[in-house]
Amino acid sequence: MRCLISNVNGVRPFHPLTSFFIHFQTLISSISKHTQCSNFHSSTSTSQTLTPLDHETVRETLVSFNNDWKRALEFFNWVEETHSTFHHSTDTFNHMLDILGKSFEFSLCWNLIHRMKQNPYSFPDHTTFRVMFKRYVSAHEVNEAIDTFQRLEDFNLKDHTSFCNLIDSLCEYKHVVEAQELIFGKTKILGFDQGLIFGNNKITGIDQDLIFGENKNLGVDGIENNDTKICNMILRGWYKLGWWSKCREFWDEMDKRGVQKSLYSYSIYMDIMCKSGKPWKTVKLYKEVKNKVYREMKELGLKPTIVTYNTIIRLLCDGYRYKEALALLHKMRENGCHPNVASYHCFFACLEKPKEILALFDRMVESGVRPSTDTCVMLMKKFGRWGFLRLVLLVWNRMEKLGCSPDASAYNALIDALVEKGLIDMARKYDEEMLAKGLAAKPRKELGTKLVEEDCADEYK
Q1: Which residue has the higher pLDDT, 129 or 55?
Q2: What are the start and end residues of each PPR repeat (predicted)?
Q3: Running DSSP on this structure, what letter comes out for residue 3?
Q4: Which H helix or E strand runs over 449?
Q5: How many domains does the chain have?
């Protein structure tokens, strides 16, 4: 249950709208690499020349406000109001939808979708509703996600791609039981009429001609057929839940159903074996993939993916074999598979020397891999746990410079480190800033914050 927090010292108000727009223009000028910087004055100046905008610049600016939906929406509307030649694309609408959905502002999301529908240049696409599925399911509003899928006929998007996006979102946020029932069940679930999707020709509850296409053996890009893809989603969903027995059960069921396992299937199952405390089985499975599947992969043109490499890197890091993991990191680039932020997370989670962590962090940024907010939170918590406040502040400042918008976890990690060192005034400053942004702060006696329930209890004493 969400904790309500009151602050006896008050809350810092939002900046005035004029400050918003000045900040927006500053962001645009600093992000855009193709335009010259210009001064941004008051809206009363008619001779004002605004910085030319492109969609990439707008996207980057929205990303910087991804944890502050009010400012993001203010900027989103301001762009079209003040730049007559600029019109939002489907992509920029999708970014704004994701920010609103993250804050559970679903009514505003649908208002934007109706705006998109009226403009042929920003008509909703599969990504639009993939975002809606993801945000509904992340809020555990499964019925609303399914209802959204049923409404896709109005947008001519009620097809197998949208269905896969729905299943993927359900599995991503641990609603695997509902996803599996939608795929393999033969009865209605949560008010969802399977006949609308599966029709009367059911094989394990699926109209395969509608979901998998006429040629069920072609698959995705001629390599991985769609039943494998959907089964991989279910397998990954059980993995996220940590139900290892269900993972093994479904792995065997894939064989019984005649599902042709792909490289991604093996990558997921290797991770399952590693996380379930059976790393020797992971090594055995890796050898099986290497020896038995390698030739078939080569014939089909398959190469190890980023998921495969990250799984092995995580296994090596968990076993304190950092040199081998770093060697694999270099080998990835040689094989044309560039590391992503998850690759570096494997190292950050296991390394125990601040100097090595910071050196790897710098190397990650220099290589073009942009750290996420989760990356910075991971490092701040680690340094705070070790008592290195200077390093916590260093990561916080780097996070802002790199354009990562601090979320509740980032603020809490910073405030905890400050409180631990007795810097109460500075901690209170960030606590008030956090509350002003509408982010949930932890109750802390040191800062004079406490649960609203405690206030009520004190009144009745």
Answers
A1: 129
A2: 227-261, 305-339, 372-406, 407-441
A3: P
A4: strand 449-451
A5: 3
Q: Which residue in the block uniquely carries the two structure tokens 């509350």?
A: 435
Q: Is residue 325 part of a domain?
A: no
Contacts of 232 (CB under 8 A, 6+ apart): 262, 264, 265, 268
Does 253 reside within a domain?
no
Tell me: the pLDDT tens digits for 120-159? Answer: 889 999 999 999 999 999 999 999 999 999 999 999 999 8
Residue 102: C-alpha distances to residues 66, 133, 166 (Å): 8, 12, 17
pLDDT at 212: 39
CB-based burial of residue 26 (10 Å sphere; 0-12 exposed, 13-18 middle, 19+ buried)? middle
- The answer on 91 and 29 residing in a single domain is yes
CB 425 within 8 A of CB 393: no
For residue 226, give the nearest of 294, 141, 168 by alpha carbon. 168
Q: How many CB atoms lie within 10 A of CB 15?
A: 12
Q: Note down the domain range covering 390.
A: 376-461
- 367-372 own/partner pairs: CB under 8 Å, 24+ apart: 367/339, 369/338, 369/339, 369/340, 369/341, 369/343, 369/344, 370/341, 370/402, 370/403, 371/341, 371/344, 371/399, 371/402, 371/404, 372/341, 372/404
Nearest-5° angle of CA 332, CA 336, CA 339?
A: 45
Residues 207-245: pLDDT tens digits? 444 443 443 333 333 333 447 889 999 999 999 888 888
Please state, in angstroms and rounded to a whole number, the distance separating the CA atoms of residues 457 and 461.
Answer: 7
Rg of the chain's alpha carbons, rounded to an integer? 25
Give the Å distances, CA to CA, from 250 to 231, 239, 307: 9, 11, 20
Relative orientation angle of helices 244-256 and 263-275, to the nearest 10 degrees = 150
Q: Does 330 fall in a domain?
A: no
Q: Residues in the chain, how many?
A: 461
